[in-house]
Amino acid sequence: MRVIISILILLCCSGLHAQNKQLLYNFSALPQTLMSNPGANINFDGHFGVPLLSQVHVSVGSSGVNMYDIFTDSNKETINARITTAIQKLTNQDYFMVNEQLEIISFGWRVNKDNYFSAGVYQEADLFAYFPKDPLTLINEGNRDYINVPFDFSDVSFTGEVMTVYHIGWNKKMDNKLTLGIRLKLYSGIFNVESTNNSGIFTTRDTPDGSNYYRHYATGLDIRVNTSGYASLQDETTTVQEATKELVKNSFFGGNIGAGIDIGGSYRIDQNFTATGSLQDVGIMYQRKDVENYLYYGTYATSGLEPLFPEIGPGGKALPYWDIFEDEVDANLKDETVQESYVTWRPFKLNGSLQFGFGETVGDCNYLIPLKRRFENIMGIQLFGVMRPRGLKYAFTMFYDRKFTPDLRMKVTYTLDDFSYYNVGFLVSKKLKNFNLYLAADNLFGYLNLAKSQHQSVQMGLQFIFIK
Amino acid sequence: MSPQYHFYRFFILLLILLGVTSCVKDVDLSQTEDISLQPKMQTDLLIFDIDQKDFIDPDTNLLRTVIKDTVRLEFLDDSYIQDDLDKVEFSFRYINTFPQAFNTSIYLLSENNQLQRSVDFKVQPGSAGNPVTTEIIDFIDTDEIDQIKRSIKMVVEVAVISNSDPFVGELKFQSKGLFYFVF
Questions:
Q1: Do B47 and A302 touch (CB under 8 A)?
Q2: Is 0.95 exceeded by the ipTM?
Q3: How do the domains of chain B map onto residue ranges?
Q4: For a tag on chain B, would you pick the N or C end, based on fewer CB atoms within 10 A?
């Protein structure tokens, strides 16, 4: 139990940050910008990622608590008191997230000056959980100090998925002002868990005129946990080799499948201003294979066991009051495991930006060489949103993007979101001939003491980028 | 070297510096060993509501002065009790309108009917329209908690202390347990 609690708390403290890739968005020199906006303005003519290394993205964070809050080495109070304080401080709107993406294959080619195609395969894991405040308070503190206070089980809301994504995108320059893009995606689900739209109240009421001290109510309990790709792993006869084989098979459409689309565009408003927008992962997954659903539902109230008193059982033996009580509970509060297919929607993301370019690039004095980028400096604002079970989560970013040489660019961002008001991020992209290396890190100040940070995000990649 | 290049190098170095110096400070992760959940659960236990008819022996139709009942509390041998129960506070309450007092005993017995713990007290007499409440709290601390862990049955016994008043009235019994867990 202690191990489970420790893992939960460590996970909570290290939580995750939304997959907001504010550093890569609209970064026209990197192919990865096409993954957040297929209609981005790009200035390259081909790319090929180093397999497994063209994009590694990990982001972590939690909206309400950090590791220091729990594990501080000050001895003013016990760690259990700090956990209780943290649970009391957090609300059911706080959340934890984990997002990880690994590009397996990535490549693209320009067909002509107006059309660029890109394709690839990446693996993604995304976990999101609202803080289950009421159930966790009940587990941590019990009901003694919460008589007449309802514990709401709708606080339980989480999703998680691991999948492989196969995609192909088309970036088309419509005219000198407008670029549009689309990306089609096929999802191959490896694992999914979903528990949203739960309901139910547990209350212990004081009953001064009732039959006992209290009356316990479980009212309208309706909790459902859907899983796919999980039940077969639970089979104790499955060997590690078989489980691995199953996971690999599932990542190649052997499991559950789905489809989605990204759309986006860029519009040059005038010489200096450009607006962009995109919608990512508008997609659906059909969870049909290796599905298991866990259901808990019903309504029940009790004031305790009521023996017939005095005992009247045959031979003076005690009547099975407890068995009768258990049967009654089981008849009213159901616990079922079923195999029912279900549908999940991918958490769609939206991006928008307005940017201003200045400091025109001075190219070689040769009108035959087109300038791929017109400005040395770009600054602007970006808005990111991601759909979660209870609505969109937003992040607002201001950025400054500077091109130092044709092979060297950097971008600095300042982001406001649920995690922090001090999030400064930095991206650097360097080319050595056709080989490109980029590194982006979010929330730089957090690195000074990760224990006090509520999120961190890192992206890096190695690839070949070709410019004619 | 252009100024921009130096600027870039400075930022790269800064990034590397941040990477190298990034650390987890002012925390003590060995405290995970001390983490425990300590819920305190208030739970209703037994209730009954009896009158003079319940003291009549159905076989002989004669008044019995002592009656009792036994209830198995099957949850007491569940793992969360056996492994994680730390303390218990039982509360027992009688509400009496009989003009007689009662001696009551509450026993906790093992599977083999070995007595593990008992609580004995006197229920005060009341009268019609004037119920009298008698309440007692029995606290079982950590050093005695094995008495509860060995128990599986609760026996409630009520003995009338006869007097000259007519034996008519109602006796209500209420009980709860406050269970202290350390998970």
A1: no
A2: no
A3: 36-181
A4: N
